[in-house]
Amino acid sequence: MKNVKLISLALSMLVCFVTMAQEKTITGTVSDNVGPIPGATIGVQKTKKTATTNYEGKYTITAQKGDVLVFSYIGLKSQTRIVGDKNVIDVKLEEDQQTLSEVVVVGYGNSRSKKKMTTASSTQMIQGRTMGVEVSANYAITQASPSPIIRGAESIGSTNEPLYIIDGVPAKAGQIAKINPNDIQDVKVLKDDNANSLYGLKGKNGVIVLATKNELYKNLSEKELDAKLTHLTTIQPVEPNQEDYDTFVENAFESPKTAPLSTFSIDVDNASYTNIRRFINNGQAVPKDAVRVEEMVNFFKYNYPQPKDAHPFSINTELSDSPWNSKNQILKIGLQGKNIPTDDLPASNLVFLIDVSGSMSEMNKLPLLKQSMKILVNELRKKDKVAIVVYAGAAGMVLPPTSGDEKKTIIDALEKLNAGGSTAGGAGINLAYKIAAENFIKDGNNRVILATDGDFNVGDSSNTDMEKLIEEKRKSGVFLTCLGYGMGNYKDSKMETLADKGNGNYAYIDNIQEANRFLGKEFKGSMFAIAKDVKIQIEFNPKQVQAYRLIGYENRKLRPEDFKNDAIDAGELGSNHTVTALYEIIPAGINSNYINNQPDNLKYTQVQANSNNYTNELATVKFRYKKPDGDKSIELVQVIENKAVLLQNASDDLKFSSAVAWFGLKLRDSKLITNKSSEDITKLAKQGLSNDSEGYKAEFIRLVEATKEAY
C-alpha cells in the first residue's frame, strides 16, 4: 500500500512537471476604439485562472499551447484567442451593440445628447457613495430593468489596487462600491508590514478592512454577497441652480510696451478640476465661471526635477508652439517643491472645523466628509495632535487636542457627528483659530481644516466680511485648508475666498477617491507648506514679444508694486508640490487678430538703444517667497532664452498641460482660441500621456471624449 501511494504521488508530480513545462507567459494589450482599457479581464477558458489589465491596458498571464483565452470588459463584446506559438496577443474589443441599446449611460455622459448631457447616474457618483475606502472599480452596475451598464475610467491604476475585506471576507472593488455607507461601522487601512503580515502577498498594495454594523456580510460567498448588494441607491445629480461662483473676465493679450510686467500669485488649488469632473460625470453643463484653468492644469503632477540648491523649489521653463493658434507660442513656467521625507516633517497641530448644519445632511456631504477625515487621521503620527470643532446654529469643540496615535478616539468623535441647524460659520472659524493658537507649535505645522459645502454665514454673510475675518486670522501664523463637498447649493466663491485670503489651499472632494488622493497620497503636499507668499513677476522683451497673455490665474493677478510688498498675501507651496503657469505669446512681427495696433514710437517706453538689445532673451522671470515661519521674502531671478522647440519635440509635460488648458478654454468658450476640436485636444493629451501611475491623466482624456458632442 505504501509503495502504491508513492507511485501515485510520483505520477502526480510528473504530471504537474509536464504541465508546468508546457505553460508559457502570454503578454499583450487590450484596447477599444478610444485606446488602452484598464481593468479588462483575461481568463483561461475552463479554468479559474484570470488576469487584469493595468492602467496602460497591458496584461500578463500563463497558459498552455491550445488554451483558449477569453478577453472581456463590461459594455464590450468578449473575444477569444487560442494560444499558439506567439507569446504576445493584442486584442481590440468592439462595442456590444445589443448591450449598448439598453444603456442609459456611457462613459461620463449621455452620448445621445449634443447640447446638454443628462444622466441618471455615473461611475464616479457611485464611487462617491463608497465611504471609507478607495474604490478603484472600472464599472458599476445599478439595479434597473434592464440593468444599465456604466462604463468609466479607473482613477487608480489596477496595479495599485488594494485588497478589500468586508466582515472578514475578501471582496471586489465593484462589491465595495455597492455597500450602503450607513451600514459601515468601522474602516481600517493597513499598509506595508501590517498588511503583509496578515494577508501575505495579497496585501502588498495595502488592505482596506471594513466592518459593517451587525456583521451584515459575514461568511457570505461571492454570489451571496452580490445578491445582498443588489439594491443600490445612487446619489442623483442636483441642478446647480443655487451654486455660487465668482465671475471673472478672461485675461486678454497685452503689449510689453504698455504693460511690461505680468505679476501673479502661484495657485496650488485644484478644486475647479474636480468640480468640473463632477458636472461632467453627472451629465450636466459646466458653468463657465466654475472653470479656473490654472486649477485644472495644477491638478496634475509633472516631471520637474527636485531643487538642487538651498531654495525650496526648482524653476523650469520651456517654449514651444501654441496648439490652438498656430502662429503663437506657449511658454511654460514650472515649479517643483522639495520633497521632504515624512520622518523629517514637523509636528502638526490640526483643528478640524466641520460644518454640521442642516444643508450637510446629504450622503455626499457629511457622511463623505467623515470618511474623508478618516483617511487623513490614518496619516497622523504620535507627535501630531487633532482637535475637532463643529458649527451649526452655534460652534463648539467636540474633541480637545488629541494625539495622532489615538486614532480610535478621533474616529469615534467623527462618527458621532450629525447634521442639523443653521450655519454660523463665523463663530466656528473664530473658535477653531482660537484652539489652534492656544496649541501653537513653534516651527510646526499649525493648520485649520475647514470642511463644508460653503453655505454658511459670516457677519451679514457677505464675502467682504469673510475676507476681513480670515485676513485677520492669517496673522496668527495658522494655515488654512478648505475642503468642499456636495452639489446643488455649493458655494465655491466663499471657499475660494477663504483659501486665497487665509494662507490656504482648497480642494473639492467629489468622491472618496479624491479624498484619498488629496488627504492620503498627497498628504505632505496638501498639509505641509515649505514656502509661503510665493509670487511670480515676468518681464517680456518687446524685441521678441509683440503681445502676451497669462492663461488663467485671473483671480490671482497682482499689481506690479505688490511683488516686493511683503504685506501682500500670495499662494503657498507644499512638500513635493508642482505649480505650472502658461503664457500664450504672439511673437514680434506676426500679424494677429487678437491685438489692436500698438504704437511703435512711445517716448518713454522704448527700449534704450545700446550695444546689448537682449536679442537672445525672451523674458526675465523673478520669484519671491517666504519661509513658512518667515516675514521677509527672498528673491530669485532667471532669464528665459528665446529658444523655442517644435510642439512635436516638446516635453510631455508641456503637451499635456497645454491640452488641459486648451480644454478649460473650450469649456469657458474662450474667444481667444481658434481651434476647439475635442479630437485635437485628445490627440495632444495622448502625446503627453506619461508619468501617470495613478491613471488621472487617462481619466482626463476620457472626460474630453465624453464632452465632444455637448460642447
From TrEMBL:
Q: Where is the VWFA domain?
A: 349-527
Q: What is this protein called?
A: von Willebrand factor type A domain-containing protein
Quote the PROSITE patterns the UniProt record gives.
VWFA
Which keywords belong to this entry?
Signal
* Keyword Lipid metabolism set for record: no
Secretion signal, residue range per the UniProt entry: 1-21
List the Pfam families hit by this protein, alphabetically. CarbopepD_reg_2 (PF13715), Plug (PF07715), VWA (PF00092), vWF_A (PF12450), YfbK_C (PF12034)
Q: Which Gene3D superfamilies match?
A: Carboxypeptidase-like, regulatory domain, TonB-dependent receptor, plug domain, von Willebrand factor, type A domain
Which organism is the protein's source? Flavobacterium flavipigmentatum
